[in-house]
Amino acid sequence: MTSQDLQKLKLPDAPGVYFFLGKRKKILYIGKATSLRSRVRSYFADDILEKRSALIEQMVAEAETVEWTETDSVLEALILEANLIRTHKPRYNTIAKDDKTFNHLVITNEEYPRVLVVRGKDLTERFTTKEIKYIFGPFPSGMLFREALAIVRKIFKFYDTERPIGEIKTKMGKGTIDFNRQIGLYPSVQSKREYQRTIQHIRLFFEGKKHQLIKILTKEMREYARTQAFEKAGEIKRKIFALTHIEDVALVRRDMYRNRGSRATRIEAYDIAHMSGKDMVGVMTVVENGEVRTSEYRKFKIGSVKSSNDPAALREVLDRRLAHAEWPMPQMIVVDGGRAQKNAAELILKKYGIGIPVVAVTKDEYHRPKRLLGTQTLIREHEDSILLANVESHRFAIAYHRQKRGKFV
Q1: How many CB atoms lie within 10 A of CB 152?
Q2: Is the pTM of this model over 0.85?
């Protein structure tokens, strides 16, 4: 297929899924797009080999035409792409990347089903067939998928605890569930029947049946209104509005940057502060497109480390941060320290199956940046933002530590 063939197609400037078709309309490759017109055109640029790969260049040459399906949002395009790849298993999708590293959405077969993100290679190790109620994916882009799940979670609250709900007996475990209910992540205390209904709603959405789901919700809303349960009717009305006006601006932005080849726009930096292991705290700061985002800074009181062990404290902080699927994912993580801190961060990222690059900022005896450890091309491109994020994390950590220590003076 050539750029001249492309000119004959009237591709819309809308989100959706596109299909490169070969002889006898065999599907060669499936992809999603924020703008179908822009994305498909990008395959016919002169630098396709440099920006994509020799494999994709070969796929375009083999293709005879392109077809597409529009969606109402980028979020729905992401879900449709995953479902279609799973159904058709196009040749160039399956050989372009090992799908064992891809994320899947697993809904467990339990009294209170959990909604979990699981890598392909971990599916058979963590679950038996009977333990899985529904499975969706693979989702090729882990970051985009987590952004999408955060959007869905604002509409449908679900459990994603490490252990089944019925097995959580400790005060800490129950406290975590109660806290997540308070901040609107987990469902409020409700009957098993209501939660099962929520799970069915999530299933329909990830099956790409949004319009069917809206019909079901509309019927439920009218029934509640008929019985004068107006608060329940109002809740469902808000869900219907959210589904018909999906706010996936963050998803659009991340997809656009990814398509343009920008590898780091949001940087999260972490630092640990303590006094010989006492009153240990950790912080997260954010720099996005070279600007600080103070409203997204976070504080962490370290609970698992009782001695002077910065890497262990950093592992706790990152573990707790990555449990927040509703927070935007960064394109780079910056840690204060050396190889030990960098390894600690990468260990937690590996646990979650996330491939975010880590940069460590080592300091001299005057606490001035001496060396940056990490991918040098990324460091050269974003050195100013890396150092800004690091300075902010150190300042914020010291301020938090002084505040915490002051309470006991």
Answers
A1: 21
A2: no
